[in-house]
Amino acid sequence: MVSDPAALRVYETDGLASERQMPLTVVFPREADEVVATVRACFEDEVAFVARGSGTSLSGGSVPPPGGVVIALNRMNRILRLDPDEQRAVVEPGVVNAHLSQAAAPYGLYYAPDPSSQVICTLGGNVAFNSGGAHCLKYGMTSNHVLGLRVVLPDGTVERLGGSSLEVPGPDLVGLFVGSEGLMGVAVEITVRLLPKPEAVRTLLAAYGSLQQAGEAVAAVVESGLLPAAMEIMDRLAIEAAEAAVHANYPKGAGALLIVELDGPRDEVESDFVRLHELIRRSGATEVRVASDDAERLKIWKGRKGAFSAVGRLSPAYLVQDGVVPRTRLGEALCEIEQLAAAAGLRVANVFHAGDGNLHPLILYDGRRHGERERAEELAAAILRVCIRQGGSITGEHGVGLEKRQFLGEMFAEDDLRAMARLRREMDPLGIANRGKMFPPGFEEAGEAGRALLPSAAAG
Amino acid sequence: MAVEEVQGADVLAPADPGEAAEAVKASRVVVPRGGGTKWGLVAARMASVAGTQGGVRIVDTTRLAGILQYDPAEYTVTVLAGTRLDDLGQVLRRAGQYLPFDPPLAGRGATAGGAVASGLSGPGRLLRGGVRDFVLGIRFVDGEGRLVRAGGKVVKNAAGFDLPKLFCGSLGELGVLVEVTFKVLPAPPSSGTARFGFDRLPDAAAALRRLLRTPLEPDAVDLVERRALQAASGPEVAGDDPWSLWVRVSGEEAHVAARLDRVEDVVGAPGARLHGPPEQALWDGLRDLDWASRAPAVLRLHTTPGRIERLDEALQRLGALRHYSVAGHVAWAAVESVPARSLVVSELAGLADAALALRGAQGSPHVLMPGEGFARRVKRALDPAGRFGGNG
User: Quick check: A196 contacting B, CB < 8 Å?
Assistant: First the structure.
């Protein structure tokens, strides 16, 4: 347990550096029983808490609730069981995403969901936010790979959800818990599915004069019926940042880069790759590079996966947005973002999962300049509204957290939110689990005694 | 709204979501029903709410039919809940797409809402995922008669609680589904199936597990007892072997045969090959449980490939015909009658995560359910007055 102010400061924020809140205290459980005891104590004293791993949340999901306890799960980092025959692993929540694939590698297996922060983010956090990654297009998000959970509910009750089969009986409780942003409790044991490593992987990088051309190439790939494992686009500014940071040796002067990766059985990948290559050649690419070995492939991905942090070299501060638009409206959305950015006088770098319509505009600003951070936040809001207006989502993989909670009410109607709020209240009558996250401000208010006072409860 | 009288319960057939909400509000107890293909699930619900004061109403969703939105380039389709899956399948096929989770009983009139509410997936579930992985958004009537929307219409969404997944397998106990948005995928251009015969189940199960360890990406691997196949398709498909392992691969036509060669290498024996209409008929038959169509009761068990042999011994003691689907993650068992819950629990302890009786009016529809406390809280939140029954 930590209560020294200097040590606590480490836990007052996460990847969304603009939101800070000093925790009351931080506990470091090593066993599930210690999590249960902590949660029970919080419940008895009506103290809010948040569970966190490496703090890579970009939506402020693991910022402490005011006056709340941080349950830091990094020491619960054991792989409890790795069963190659059943192709599954049982892990503690503090296991780092990439470590699981490393442990599974000797058996020819891997864990498919690959958030860009996979070398540091934990599986508990992935479960809380239903994290995605570059390979969602073919493999789905975290939720598609979690078979079972052991969870501590906000009143200290322990429940097992799901099991070890691919199929679950009854309502999909695992599906509900995954992505509930810590509002339904803490997962202390996670059973995930492992997949055989693809036999072959082929990756190409194509440079285009403009973002629009790269977008059209994506549409052509989709139209062809190919199912790539990943399709990623970076714009000029993102390329520049990645180049400066990791020297990926991307083509010079490109307006946009497209990365397409195919994986699967060798015969299929080889013939699909011929089709893909031909398609890309005819799509107006100024340069096409094919990774000839793993090292070249990793280099292509290093620039992409490091793009977020690389932008830090171009600007003292930036906001990472995460919105989704229908894939066919990507071009339109990017144009609108460009116009909005110009009007705000700010630079926006775009890195995104093009195959999913999942945008990641990085809004660059300088917090030392008067009013610039506010303008960056306004621009971020305007971008999210573009996503909502086009029938998309305010978040594809980062969650709502603290950052986007006022937009949840713009995406959903009041009856929709109330259904979610009733679920929250049944799981957590005191509203102590990650209080203040996900629901719009004012929708879930903490009363004097710390009780959750939801509008529906007040009404009757 | 059409009203008919069935088994002592009024049947309401709303023509739009608003009417469905009104029907729920005006009823004391509601049992939703789609195409009625999983009749054991509805019958068990009816039995559990029988005698309710004020009567029981069936809300039949089959008039809530139609495709609301489909743009093939988006890989998503939004339909009213009563839309028949075979109708939807035809529309998707014309655009070269399909629902990879292979919904059971699609050929017998199953609906989109029923597929979600039952949470069932067919043999094709193995490679690309189950119904839960393809439901992006839903609209439903909750226990208070409110129309609620959850999820969305894009392939990726992490906003709000994932109620669309929650509703998979909810059996109508959390609400009446009125609209569903599915993710769809491009249909593979071609496929081929190899059949391998085995005298003994352990050998077949071992071959199945070897296949799973390869990167060959078979999209269906099912293991079927001869008696079950005979019941469905007669001796020429069933063959003489007590067990047969069916392996389907798909992709470009040029590669299907080569991949089946590799499957044969892994299994260690030559397989009999099926292509075209006979192949389609076989998998449609397995998906639609043709082999169990005359069985008085059908159980579905959720297990893992490593437990096939031990589970099979237990199912044999229950006198079941057996079909292991989704590479052994799902066991279908046709029995004379649904065994008592206590018998299922004692026989299957440790062998299956859970069991669900798809047919057979008597007995509890599901047993060995994990997470019951959590499920009760969910139920209280969405249906506090118990309008959808199941609050016992």
Answer: yes
- Test mutation, B38, B165, B211, chain A, max A CBs within 10 A: B165
Contacts of B328 in chain A (CB under 8 A): none
Residue A67: DSSP 8-state? T
Contact A175 B165 (CB under 8 A): yes
The Cα B380–Cα B384 span in angstroms is 4
Q: Of the given ranges (A276-290, A392-406, B6-20, B209-223), which has the lowest mean pLDDT? A: B6-20
Helix (DSSP H) and strand (DSSP E) numbers for chain A: 16, 20
Can you tell me whether residue B151 is helix, strand or coil? strand
Q: Quote the DSSP letter at residue A16.
A: S
Are the beta carbons of B251 and A422 separated by less than 8 Å? no
Give strand ranges (E) for A35-101.
Answer: 49-52, 69-72, 79-83, 88-91
A363 to chain B, any CB pair closer than 8 A? The answer is no
Residues A6, A27: Cα–Cα separation, whole Å: 15
- What's the complex ipTM? 0.95
A286: which DSSP letter?
A: S
Q: Are B295 and B318 in contact (CB under 8 A)?
A: no
Give pLDDT tens digits for A77-105. 999 999 999 999 999 999 999 999 999 99
Closest CA to A115 of A301, A387, A314, A383: A301
d(CA A121, CA B69): 37
Torsion of the alpha carbons at B100, B106, B107 and B108, rounded to the nearest 10: 170
Alpha-carbon gap, residue A49 to A39, rounded angstroms: 8
pLDDT tens digits for range A307-365? 777 888 889 999 999 999 999 899 899 999 999 999 999 999 999 999 999 999 999 99
